[in-house]
Design goal:
This protein is 20% helix and 33% strand. By secondary structure, the protein is α+β, with helices and mostly antiparallel strands. A six-stranded antiparallel sheet has the order 2-1-6-5-4-3. A hairpin with a 5-residue loop joins strand 4 and strand 5.
Length: 171
Amino acid sequence: SKRVNAQTHSARMTAILNAALSSMTDAVYISDGEGRALHFNDAFVTFHKFKARSECEIPLEGFTDFLEATDITGTNLPLDRWAVPRALSGETTDNLEITMRRKDTGEAWIASYSFAPIRQADGQIVGAVVVVGQVKRFAIGADRDRTQPTVMRLGDRPLGVAFLAEIGRAT
């Protein structure tokens, strides 16, 4: 019957989605139109320093109990400036750097967020997709002469030359 075919198709699509999310190393969070989690992968749990998936199965507002977000200037971001609410308002962004900090442990890291709304055929926003990865910075030894150029290499092939700033970021 059509109902059985629809259920079979739905189960197959859910299995495909779960396999895709499980294979990704970037953190992925998919919400409904209210910001509630529909799907997220284990990388999302690990990336945000949660101990278990169940800790992430909370309303969007609940994340502010555990996490604090600041922009690159150090300005604290209210929840409506976080990725999911911005996507639900229609915004699409690639590689937005945000510093995240766990309020309970003080651990902080720089994250690169990309997000977009999920739209129905008529354009109505019904959810959001957020993908996030950690920003990697170059580590520099204390004895390194930071006024001299550094040749960046991939194996033995030079990729380019950079002057590395005092704080350790590539400039």
